[in-house]
Structure prediction request, 414 residues.
Amino acid sequence: MTSSPNLAIRLSPNALKHVRQGHPWVFDGGIESVRGGRYGDGTGEPGDVAVIFDDRRRFVAVGLWDPRSPIRIKVLHAASPVTVGADLWHDRLAHALAHRWELLGSADTDALRIVHGENDRLPGLVLDLYRTVAVLKLYSAAWVPHLDEVLGVIRSTIWSIDGIVLRLARSVAADPTVREADLADGAVLHGVVPDRLVEFREHGLRFTADVRRGQKTGWFLDQRDNRDRVRALADGATVLDVFCCGGGFSVHAAAGGARHVHSVDRSPHAIDDTVRHLSMNRDVPGVAAVDARQTVGDAFEVMDDLRRAGERYDLVIVDPPSFASRRSDVRGALQAYAALTTRAVELVVPGGTLVQASCSSRVHPDDFTTIVEKAAGRARVHLEVFDRTAQPIDHPVGFPEGRYLKAVFARVNP
Prediction:
């Protein structure tokens, strides 16, 4: 437990209501007063314990103070007092593991998310496991003073770990607290970790993750179920995988028996990863037989070029990065999704399938489906949506903003 005196917090009525309803964030604008703290003047440092009281001085919640973030308090627990420290971290990790036994016991998948931040009541902290390497990513500098305790809990709870890597969100990497602690993105905090790639399995297929320098923690684990669904739809199909990243969808489609897979990404590194992952799975009959093609280029431009060339596919997958990091970005994000849909449906053969995803929490699933359907209509095709999917079991949803991933599976009809 932190040794500094706690901060006593009073909130606005609206912020107080949200905390009592279980929301894990308190924004700076919702704070009415701050008292106490290590200096006795209401100031605090990242990671200090913030205790929220109501106007009758009754306990409401406790969280971690993050003075340089708009989300000023990351709420850990509400309704009844708890001690912030190793015992709490252990209880939260044990609870998260208990809800993931189905994946932890899988023989053909050994990469998963162990802790999903706020949704596992550890706001601002993510823990992913790639076989025997754990990746701890911090989205808040408030965790830095508690890092040694958290590492001790991880090591004592997950016995099979060979190494632990630290990843930092950009805003956290730039925080003075992190620099003072001499921490760096990609640092090995425990054990031994390969300098470049860690190999893991997903649905029996082999992939690699650059856990020290790659995007997120090295792989987009949240699309695991959707990739398997594509595998089941790909037999005998020609497939276009747009924003292919490391080729997760491409490899699954090939393994499912696709005749041809065309992978597109603007990053040459992503294309290199896709080629490597296809090569790693040549022992799978479908992958060995597939006609694979890769293109480096902007997705919008490549799709336009393919349309003009008369290319058509049985299955088109569009899985772009988030287009809405801020609320003000939502309108532009919806326009971008519509533009992608318009291009994508023109590349699908009649009766073929469109799979389109969004990973922006600010875009509601219903709004996403509506914009995709309307954009298809403007392209003079009808979408028969036969499935709408969300996050897998290791990415639970504990509050509204935690529901970020959504995907539409639709038949494309003239």
User: Anything to note?
Assistant: The first strand starts at residue 7 and ends at 11. Residues 330-345 form the longest helix (16 residues). Residues 161 and 410 are 41 Å apart (CA to CA). The mean pLDDT is 95.
